[in-house]
Design brief:
By secondary structure, the protein is of the alpha+beta class. 46% of the residues lie in helices and 12% in strands. Strands 1-2 form a two-stranded antiparallel sheet. The protein is rod-shaped.
Amino acid sequence: MAYLVSDGGKRIQIEALSLAVASSFLIPPAAVVIEAALMFCWAFAESILDVRELFAGGHVPLVKTAAGWQLSLKNLSGILNSLDSERKDSRGGMSYEDYLQVMLMAKGKQQKVTRGMDMIECTIRDKGNRPKFRMDHCIVALEASADVKANKKKTFTVIRQYAYE
């Protein structure tokens, strides 16, 4: 959206189309609202292409430029028919993993650990046939004690502790 606002050529295209639509409905003052709607739709469609490219293993620039913009206004109405043909890999951009790293840097250690544990729980529930599995119900430490008598004279106490660090 920020790129569309800054690009004069694309703004002129949007203004012309919105004025034509508003005039065809005989409501020229509605051009401003139609312009905003077109801009949001165009930016949203571009982001769909970006996400599909990331999921396909490609790269997408962090900040859009004229070179990185993929969808033309004329192809906006046919976006559903060209989801894979319109998108292009941006070699200088970021991959899906790069975007995940950026998002994870903004999170604290406790939140990362908690969300990681949530992912483990989901995996065990799905693949381990344990629909009620919860990590907070797992044993994380164990201490066992055993008394052993030798020759009926001496008693030895053996204590073992096991815990996750």
